[in-house]
């Protein structure tokens, strides 16, 4: 595993790259880039993304985990971000991967969780370097989803001022930017294949979004979509059995993608 910092505008994004023990022919290896959710990190709740990276790397796929600005070990303040900044930072990570000699010709797969799922889709809709998408419990309505989460745990009557949420300063421009994006409407712009996985007992992001995303992707003329719901799993798939099912579903789908790409 390699630790590094990736430049993105004025910020530096902390990142970790997991290299597989045995590499497939270079051009056939999809590089999986993990996009974490709202005020999360590249480690993930209960080490979700660390476990994912180890699991996929053990199956021959390189994985990049990174912290958005103001999260984890990256520079900046999260509340200074707008949603477009998160998209920009995701593209900066793709820039880095494509600049390396090892992976410059490899397919790119974005794996986004929660708000990171929305960011991954919005990035893929405008960046043709993204070949496929994996969306875990993805947000479909960023403004509604994040304001609901914030208001549930914070006494907030309105969002037209800075608020303190879990030690993060979130300003009006952050929330305003969320209201400008509608991922379900952007799904038609992405022509690649998609996997959507959701927990049946997700109390943060409605499981109904899994069906809405599937329907939106099915309307496209190109690209297929597979949806999977793991009964009783929560938002972060935080049990041994649910996480194993999640990783197996994801790995199996990726292996099929590898066959299609190669």
UniProtKB/TrEMBL annotation:
Alphabetized Gene3D superfamilies for the sequence: alpha/beta hydrolase
Protein name: Permease
Domain called Serine aminopeptidase S33: residue spans: 31-152
Species this chain originates from: Parageobacillus thermoglucosidasius
Lineage per the UniProt record: Bacteria, Bacillati, Bacillota, Bacilli, Bacillales
GO terms of molecular function: carboxylic ester hydrolase activity
